[in-house]
């Protein structure tokens, strides 16, 4: 089933964004051009596939505690600190806030994670430095609630950044602004002088940690911000505007997504004039755009869990629909065919092991990417009618069709506008390079504005997974015969 035909039911972005009817003065809008062309952003555009890793104290319980599942009591596995209701253990928050005292992941091997990501074909990593519980996986000078207070002690962020960078995988740091257990954090905008003083202290703490991360890990390419939806942060737009400017000045080429901050009218992701805030749209979380036009030409990435939700480790996946490699391949192609990156989340357990299902998917994705990555990396949207067979991607001089729906007659009919300057002049199976029979089929439909090119798949060609047909593009053959229009 082509996901792009799904009816738009996901979250708030399920259709073209309504562009504001009037223009408004915006002082605290985007700090960067809509389409950056510097090398860091060009690399971002070419990633195709990324890996997200959510790791922290929430990995210890793994969405359950003493045999009781948190599924009915917490919004997601990495939200387990907020477990409430009849299933929640007594004094749960106190128990959770002591988990750091037992965090000692004996199986953690950042180099092994990085090798696996490399073999999977990921070109960038988004790694949780600190999630909503405020526990920092690096030895921050600005909070005692960090990895150095645990039995593990060592700087996990450094181990991960170094290992992935050594494998040639760019690293982005996930950073949650909100901190559930920070006494200076508040949901609502500060009102009283005391609240303003308290929240300003929190803002300064946030800035200090971010500058610290840039200083400690200069190899990183960007931040992936989260937890920026509360009014306290939204109303702090002069501060957040200045902070983004300072981060960018400190780290030229830094990439920041649209979730970091808002304009002075409270508009997030897009300012009050509909312009993107940040370098790429960061709202496609567990959902994908149904049409290229919804993106308005902006860069974007989609982040996705393998289970229905739950970014942190979940011990028990039983009774859940967990996405298959084929599901994830189709989402990857849907993203890349619309100029986006697809980022798959992994949630290691409290010892640092990936879920066995995650290992399987990483391996199967890697096998596919090994043979077909050319249709993904550095490929972009092809301005063609949506194919019923799968997804088009293109590069200079080549058109790729990743086939998910193989026609029973083994003929892939490629429809192009009749006036196309470039048409398929040769075709092959990308995996293995077997040439394929290609012919221009003048079907002669009356007033038809499309030309058709038929690609014959070998009858003996067997595959149980999506495959890619690579087409070389060239000038159309000699002037086609002019057919008489029907008389009606
Ligand atoms: O609340 C978080 C959630 O725990 C997770 O980190 C996702 C993925 O980035 N972001 C927020 C939910 O939208």
From TrEMBL:
Pfam families: Alpha_L_fucos
SMART domains: Alpha_L_fucos
EC numbers for this chain: 3.2.1.51
Keywords, sorted A to Z: Glycosidase, Hydrolase, Signal
GO molecular function, one term: alpha-L-fucosidase activity
EC class (word): hydrolase
Residues in Glycoside hydrolase family 29 N-terminal domain copies: 21-374
GO BP annotations, alphabetical order: fucose metabolic process; glycoside catabolic process
Keyword Signal attributed: yes
GO CC, one annotated term: lysosome
Source superkingdom: Bacteria
Protein purpose: Alpha-L-fucosidase is responsible for hydrolyzing the alpha-1,6-linked fucose joined to the reducing-end N-acetylglucosamine of the carbohydrate moieties of glycoproteins.
Similarity-based family: Belongs to the glycosyl hydrolase 29 family.
Protein name: alpha-L-fucosidase
Organism ancestry: Bacteria, Pseudomonadati, Bacteroidota, Sphingobacteriia, Sphingobacteriales
């Amino acid at each position: 089933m082509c996901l792009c035909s799904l009816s738009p039911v996901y979250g708030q972005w399920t259709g073209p964004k309504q562009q504001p009817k009037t223009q408004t003065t915006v002082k605290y809008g985007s700090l960067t051009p809509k389409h950056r062309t510097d090398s860091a952003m060009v690399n971002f555009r070419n990633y195709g596939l990324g890996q997200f890793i959510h790791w922290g104290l929430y990995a210890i319980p793994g969405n359950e505690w003493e045999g009781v599942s948190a599924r009915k009591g917490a919004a997601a596995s990495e939200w387990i600190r907020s477990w409430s209701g009849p299933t929640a253990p007594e004094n749960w928050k106190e128990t959770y806030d002591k988990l750091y005292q037992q965090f000692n992941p004996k199986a953690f091997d950042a180099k092994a994670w990085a090798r696996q990501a490399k073999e999977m074909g990921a070109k960038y990593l988004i790694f949780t430095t600190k999630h909503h519980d405020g526990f920092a996986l690096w030895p921050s000078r600005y909070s005692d609630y960090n990895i150095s207070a645990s039995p593990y002690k060592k700087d996990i962020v450094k181990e991960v950044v170094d290992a992935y960078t050594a494998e040639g995988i760019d690293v982005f740091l996930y950073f949650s602004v909100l901190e559930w257990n920070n006494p200076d954090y508040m949901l609502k905008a500060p009102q009283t002088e005391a609240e303003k003083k308290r929240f300003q202290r929190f803002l300064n703490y946030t800035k200090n940690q971010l500058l610290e991360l840039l200083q400690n890990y200069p190899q990183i390419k960007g931040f992936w911000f989260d937890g920026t939806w509360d009014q306290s942060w939204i109303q702090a737009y002069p501060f957040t505007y200045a902070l983004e400017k300072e981060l960018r000045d400190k780290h030229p080429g830094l990439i920041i997504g649209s979730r970091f901050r808002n304009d002075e009218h409270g508009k997030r992701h897009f300012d009050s004039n509909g312009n993107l805030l940040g370098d790429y749209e960061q709202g496609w979380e567990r959902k994908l755009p149904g049409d290229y036009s919804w993106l308005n030409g902006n860069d974007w990435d989609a982040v996705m869990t393998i289970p229905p939700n739950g970014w942190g480790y979940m011990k028990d996946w039983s009774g859940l629909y967990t996405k298959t490699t084929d599901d994830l391949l189709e989402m990857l192609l849907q993203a890349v065919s619309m100029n986006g990156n697809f980022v798959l989340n992994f949630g290691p357990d409290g010892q640092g092991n990936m879920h066995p299902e995650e290992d399987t998917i990483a391996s199967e994705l890697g096998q596919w990417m090994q043979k077909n990555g050319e249709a993904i990396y550095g490929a972009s949207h092809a301005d063609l009618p949506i194919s019923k067979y799968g997804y088009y991607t293109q590069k200079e001089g080549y058109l790729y069709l990743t086939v998910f729906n193989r026609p029973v007659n083994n003929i892939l009919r490629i429809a192009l506008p009749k006036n196309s300057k470039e048409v398929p002049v040769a075709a092959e199976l990308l995996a293995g390079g077997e040439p394929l029979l290609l012919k221009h089929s003048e079907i002669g439909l009356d007033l038809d504005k499309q030309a058709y090119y038929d690609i014959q798949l070998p009858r003996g060609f067997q595959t149980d997974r999506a495959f890619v047909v690579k087409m070389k593009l060239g000038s159309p053959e000699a002037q086609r015969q002019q057919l008489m229009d029907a008389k009606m």
